[in-house]
Amino acid sequence: MIKPIFRIKIEQLVRPVFLILLLFVILLQNSHAIDTPQQQGISIKNPGSDLWREVRQRDTAIQGTTQIKSVDSNVLINPQADRWTRFRVDKLINIGFIVLGSVIGVILVFFLLRGRVKIEGGLSGNMVFRFHDFERVLHWVLALVFLFLALTGFTLLFGRTLFIPILGHDIFSLLASSSKEGHNLFGPIFMVSLLMMFISFVKRNIYEKGDLTWLLRGGGMIGKSHVTGGFFNMGEKSWYWLVILIGFAISATGLILLFPSFGQGRIIMELSHVIHVFGAIILITVSFGHMYLGTLGTEGTGESMKTGYVDIKWAEAHHDRWAKHCHDNNLVITADEYARLQGKGKVGYEPVSTTAGESGK
Amino acid sequence: MARMKFYCDAERCIECNACVTACKNENEVPWGVNRRRVVTIKDGEPGERSLSVACMHCSDAPCAAVCPVDCFYTTDNGVVLHDKNICIGCGYCFYACPFGAPQFPMDGAFASRGKMDKCTFCAGGPEEDNSSAEFIKYGRNRLAEGKLPLCAEMCATKALLAGDADMVSDIYRKRIINRGASVLNWGVSYNNAKLRS
Amino acid sequence: MIDPIIGDFIDGLLWTFSVSVFSVGVTWKLAVIIFSKRQTDLSVARDSALAGAVKTVFSRFIADKGTAPHIKLHIIAGYMFHLGLFALLLFAAPHISFLDEYLLGFSWPALPHWAFILAAEIAFLGLLMLWLHRMLSRVSRLISTVDDHVASILTFVVMLTGCLALMESFNELRLLHRFCVELLLIYFPFSSLMHAFTFIPSRAFTGAWFGRRGINS
Description:
The structure holds three protein chains of three kinds.
Chain A: H1 2-35, H2 49-56, E1 65-66, H3 79-114, E2 127-129, H4 133-162, H5 164-167, H6 169-201, H7 211-216, H8 234-258, H9 266-297, H10 302-306, E3 309-311, H11 312-318, H12 320-328, E4 332-333, H13 335-341, H14 352-359
Antiparallel strand pairs in A: 2-3, 2-4
Helix pairs in contact in A: 3-9, 4-6, 6-8, 8-9, 11-12
Chain B: E1 4-8, H1 18-27, E2 37-41, E3 49-53, H2 62-66, E4 72-74, E5 80-82, H3 92-96, H4 132-138, H5 150-154, E6 160-164, H6 165-179, H7 188-191
Antiparallel strand pairs in B: 1-6, 2-3, 4-5
Chain C: H1 4-11, H2 13-34, H3 49-59, H4 72-91, H5 93-104, H6 113-136, H7 138-143, H8 146-164, H9 171-187, H10 195-213
Helix pairs in contact in C: 1-2, 2-9, 3-10, 4-6, 6-8, 8-9
């Protein structure tokens, strides 16, 4: 019973195999014909074919000439444009959103697992002066401007996906337009405050000997004893240099994008945009960590940027060398003195002499 | 509906720039913006070719893909237009377009970007057809008047073709066959005269 | 997008109302200050009171030598903010054309766009620094009232909405700016913002008193 089926199968195979062989022979003949075209007829090569091959199948924009005098008007096709479009539409918007979202998630999980990092033995109430008024003002100017730029940039990058379905095109257009103007306006303010930040904090942020140990011990997360630190510890220094370096990169590329009238072409602007956005996403991501550590993450840190004073126990825990320096120079003030300085204490804040003078009348 | 396309025949274009001028005049394009331009490759060398370039009205337009406010739309005729009421002048379409079609008006000391401007295939914008508001923002709406873009209609050598893609390609196919071009490389056009029309 | 009734209200009724409140309020407040009864100075005048008054109104623009080193931030940020604000207020092209059309009937040369942006940035930086200093410096915080913060924020919002409405491409953003300006105008006479006018009589009175007594300060 099996045999006939087998035979039929072989018979069915004969025809296709023959046909394939035939096709092969024809193709061979044909390829021979291609090799020697002059036998078949007159070959007239399209005079433009080389040109169009050059125009279409290459990676750099070819430069022609044109009567239209403007930037890049002599470029026929810019092949970089499509790559940039794909990057922005397919990768940047998705990946950027995932990165920003997951960092918030990671911080949340970290907070739930680890909780607030408490100072061993609690805060003492005795304070030590850490940041001047001007330094705090500068920090908050930079922080507010940074937040504003991050939010407006966020609107421009993710708004089409996130906000248009909710707000509609017309209202989102208002939001996007004001975001764009605001972003352009506050960009230079960011640069100026970044420059001031750089100048006023650079001295204390130069890496020194103990910093490597800090890094190897994961900032005190590995091991039990505290890691050593000066006025700024290794983590804070790294954040500072990240802000400065990426901040300057963002500023430079931002300027290129902001003033399109200095003859920079599209390719430069596309590259600038990529660097700008990459830098911004890195900076925003790390800034989430900075905000977390400054507020919820560790006990006693936020105070330093609010009043300029920190608890001496906090200083001993995170910046032991600086704390020792403060102890040595008698810079620690008591809780009462601190309250008086903040205008909250009962201790002799009212100008006593005036009342004495009045009673003496 | 029709699917509108431009086609520039490089074998015919003589770089007279009449299309550029016609476009500027017909649409009263702002200073510094040229919706159409003629690019010459290998200028002065053997094999010199000129091409008139404007918006290609892509089927999958990159400008529409990157626009952060989603102001681009494709009409029933396949013309890619943008809504200047929504446009915020960010310039992303300028980066995304391989042909450099969308441009921002360069007025002001630092080119404070106004709303982007681009070729409309002489089809105006979202405003009411042939209204003055439409003309001020986008220029003439010739399609609504039953006419084709002026750049193509003005072209002295008929190098620049505009219209329904089928008709444009028909015309071009006939031209190629008549030229015996390399698309049918082995002399077919000469051997098989019946392919000619 | 936005109801034309709201637009008409902001452009029409609310504008008239706020300008009336502003002008009546400011006039009344200044009148109260200038015409208030003062104790007559019975001392023999050593020098001209008027000359002292005029001199002091201007000399106080320069900070006191002894105090200046301690208030560098106030001086620099203060001048940045105020000069920037005046440049914006008086030399922004839309402001000039608005005043020309609805109020004055004449115009003057406007700042070019880049200078406008520069002025805005200087003003913003100054205002931000001043306001943050008000909150962060312990002395400034102790002497600040709610009114100071409201005035700072309101001024900031007016400037911000103005700059967001740049290019005047969106009527809604212009209306938002105008609405904020109207809030500011209504708030103005009842707040420390009155210092824009009262600094003159205040300096003049001190100056007159000093001048009469021959105090050179």
